[in-house]
Fold this sequence. Notes:
By secondary structure, this protein is mostly beta strands. It has one domain. The protein is built from no helices and four strands.
Amino acid sequence: MVAWTAVIPLKDGFSQIDFFSNHGREVNGYKQYISSPYTQVKR
């Protein structure tokens, strides 16, 4: 299993950050897309 950890500083006046990613690849000529769930992290 692979896990990522990150620290993202927020500027003053901001209280949350939103995450979403969309990854695409092509396999045997077919395009496939995988999306992460939308996540909102509050300070």
